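Researcher: Here's a chain I'd like modeled. Treat it as a single chain, no partners, no ligands.
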Amino acid sequence: MAKKQAPPTVPPTGPEAEPAGKGKLKLILVIVVAMLVAVGLSIGGTLYFMNKGGDLGDDKAEEAATTASGKQPAIYEVLMPAFVVNFSNKGRQRYMQVSIALMSRDQAALDALKVHMPLLRNRLVMLFSSQDFEALKTPVGKEMLRQQATASVQELAQKEIGKLAVEQVLFTNFVLQ
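Model: Modeled as a single isolated chain. Structure tokens:
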């Protein structure tokens, strides 16, 4: 009994040559690459148009803000170190720590005021140490102290440099103990 031998198989050539698994893998790879390119182009186009329009818009918005309100942008000068003063309250020693920032719209006037910083700090320390602890515990008392500090700094600026260099004194940190 003779067994039949099958003719030798020749590997197919052409489109039928690839197994089904490799064809699907290539298709998925092409789709993923196409999606990545589309997302990249979308992000790139968005950034290009936002940046292009943003530069012109920022300049126009800044000019409009200064001309419409007539004011320059605010400049802040933080006074370091923070003020720490002590005062007596009903025989008990109390402490206050205040961090201050000066708000101005004129950098030249603010720089001129920096020359008189020891005098300014002295005025503020004297003002802070003369306060009543009970009044400072309330928000109204803190706001009154801020307004007094603003008036004191403006008075010093007017006297020393001839103009109001500081628009407001701002408390950035306020601790009572």
